[in-house]
Amino acid sequence: MLNHDQLGELLGTLCPMFVLLDGDGTIRQAGPTLQKLRSDRPMPGRAFLDVFDLVRPRSITSFRDLMASDSVKLSVKFRDEPRTALKGLVSPLPDGGAVINLSFGISILDAVRDYALTSADFSGTDLAIELLYLVEAKSAAMEASRSLNLRLQGAMLAAEEQAYTDTLTGLKNRRAMDHILEHLVSSKATFALMHLDLDFFKAVNDELGHAAGDHVLSEAARIMLEETRNDDTVARIGGDEFVLIFRGLSDRDVLQRIAERLISRLQQPMDYQGQTCAISASIGTALSAQIPSMDPADILNAADVALYEAKRSGRGCHRFYCEQEKAGH
């Protein structure tokens, strides 16, 4: 027959969350892990019901009731903060005392965090350790998955952005312009579309080389962006062809002033490695309200007709689309 000290030592190894009680409900010994939860307040010598608040069963209100409940399952909480919830099982002893084996139950994750518990604080056969490992592994896997998803989303966004961007100028490309036009037409929005062509650009390429031509295209793109609003679209749709879409704008006077500023700035000589690149711009503009079909191809064709008229008028100028031009073209 084990004495209380020997029993306590054995329980400390097998059940580190045990409480050994005397016949009057006083705590004789507490398991090392249980005592760690109140390291500054020794439990031996204190009444069990002074340390713990008995939550369930509600029918038990005294230590005598507790002793009469062989193998009953308990739910208890510490009476002081933090009020950690514990599960327990009562086993009466022949001398009138009892052993209560406690565990954290589903609150184990909070307990490990709140009390800095390690595997040494649990019995070697306690499945709580495996649970903690599984939770940690799941957390690591979920974090890795989130990180991977973020990288994939970033890569998809970058690929999508690249698919809609002209690599030389950073402007929208033909594909992006088509997508924007379809959206504007389907939503029956009001807009103006300018088709801009750089005059004499081929001469720059032929005389000064493609590097000079690339420089001119990049400078032209910068000027177009500076002369448009954030909600407008500037797209490079060909070698030296650009389309500018002005959302919600149909005022001819405003559009004429924008076109004149673009032509004025683009005809200013551009320097490239000490050499002068001279170009100009011809612009044709069509208004969405002019095209009853509201078909993107028809709107682009109308702006192209107006551009042709601008070039036929001597280049370096701007023309609006009209039905008479279409008939003449």
Automatic annotation (TrEMBL):
Residue ranges constituting the GGDEF domain according to the UniProt record: 189-323
GO molecular function: catalytic activity
Gene3D superfamilies found in the cross-reference section: 3.30.70.270, Haem NO binding associated domain
Annotated InterPro entries: DGC-Regulatory_Protein, GGDEF_dom, HNOB_dom_associated_sf, Nucleotide_cyclase, Rev_trsase/Diguanyl_cyclase
Domain of life the protein comes from: Bacteria
Annotated signal peptide: none
One Pfam family here: GGDEF
Protein name as it appears in the record: Diguanylate cyclase (GGDEF) domain-containing protein
